[in-house]
Amino acid sequence: MITTSHQGHSMIKGSLGMMKCVLVVLALVVLALMAGTNNMILKYEYTSSNNAPASDLHVKDTSDGIFTNDNDELQLINEIHQEEQTDIYYEMGICPIFNSKPGINSATSLWVEGLKAGYIKDSILAAPDNLDGSLNAHLRDLSTRVLAVLSPTILRRSIHHFAASPNEGSDNRRKITAILEKLRLRHHDKKHDKVKILVFGGSPTAGSNCYRNGALKKDKSGPCAWPGHLEGFLNAYAGFDAFEVVNYAIGASDSSLAVTMMQHGLVPESMKGPDHEVDIIIYAYSVNDFERYDNSANFLHDFVVAADSLAPCDGPRPITILLDDLVVNFHRNHSIDPAEKFHSEFVKMAQWHDLPLVSYSNVAKSLVLHNTSEELFVDYKKDSKHAPRGGHIAIMLTLAFNFLNMVQQHCDDLLYTTGENGENNKTSTFMDPLHLPLIESNPSLDAVTESWKSRIVDAKEKKSKNCKNGGNKRCAFAWVAMRKEKEHYHHVDTPQDIMAESQDWVLDSTWPPTNYGLKALKENATVQLLLPGTVRNEDDSRTGIQIESMGITYMKSYSEKWYNSSLHVDVISRGNVDGNFTMPISEGNSMSNSPAILASGNYSGFHETHTSEYYTESLDIHGHQFGEGLNVTFRMTGGSTFKIIGLTFC
């Protein structure tokens, strides 16, 4: 119960105001927008933009609903709302309000205020599968157990690196400023765009087998995954629909698939274009990448460079956050040394390229090492690779704490860069650290500087060229098999568009998503694909391009039906075609002589590892003439099954 005395009013207005200001930041930084507006967590209906129509997503206004406050608290909050105008954030912005109350403006102090007031625990209830409040009792119990472990001291261990560039014109600083402005405008008028957060990862991030804490019997994956929790938490805490978090995790994949998707624009339609660009990208592939790579820096570098391709032509790139959620070593009887070396690569990469790093592994490590039989964050008895729901809640809270810290530090920096009279204090200007050469190349000091300058020039030229061509996606065909949820739906190419002749190949789109893909079903199965040498423009016209490579994402597995599984690919020129995907092969090639094979490749679908995994590879295509069509043949040369979930011709 909160006192209603005058003294109590002052205290509450100060601490609540402070908290609300800071957390409504980034699609992740909403934790504090409670300064005294109707954003406070009341018994109002909360509507999210999850995977169903808005009319189906109301949280019921009952004492059992997501948000509970007694009458005194409601009365007090309403009084604060009347005294402090609803437009306070619109009029002033977050940082001026935040910086006006020194003494409680650290991330820790704001977090503690939220814990004491109960807003953090209440907001955890805003989960995608709890929109009717039916899981309130279970989630309250689970969140109590999680918060008992995640003290502010423990959470601070996760802040491994904060990309606080001293350069006022840096992309990170410009993007945080833009995100805060987005929140300010949307808080005032919902016609403005939300803050967009895009999450890439494998099955741990997709939520595989996360329904385990407690006796809940649900599907093996879905709404209990932390990205859905994050969206619900941020919007509930803010009190308005400010954030959109899209979970693009695909089970059995690694970060090379995410690189392909970002490079070729295979992202949600709601996160494309100059008015709807993605604001924050979260790398959540550490569990999957740990199993496949010896050199972490290379694949991490590839990921953050690909994220840069989603930057608008005239604006800063998305903030890329590296999430290290590999908890010790999920192979329980194996040495933890490889995992510790893997963690150190994250730190080195983040510091070298000035990237935000959130180390959930540091948060959970003490608990796991203290009790290897614990089942709250990691369940070694049943599935040590995929976190139970308690682990997903813990990851979400760790990210939220880091978002809060990110905004708090950003606002602190403004105290220095902006003088008392509004003038700007000059700061040193540095080159963009994203384009530093890979540290593994062991360059000298002078070589680093020269390479850095050269890489920046190359990046600017590439961006300028892509922007003149209408964007980064210049592919005759680009497809990745996606889940069917609303946030994954977009009008993109599908293999059905280019399949001409098929013998024992099918395009599977039956639920669940693990079934999706282009599949060979028998020995000697063959399929022919017809590709135009053009790209589709926004007005549905087509422009000729030169196709330089084929990207393929395919499965490797271990069971008997996958034994000796192998695929041969031939890429042949078809001459000039007008983009008619249904043209028969015999008519599509008008050359009198047999066409030259421009590229060939062989791929194995079998491995000894007792798990199914996706691999992404690139095949160079040499000698393709501008605007010419291609005939691509996939033929099984061994085994009786093969599965493809991604193809690009660019």
From TrEMBL:
Protein name: Uncharacterized protein
Organism of origin: Chaetoceros debilis
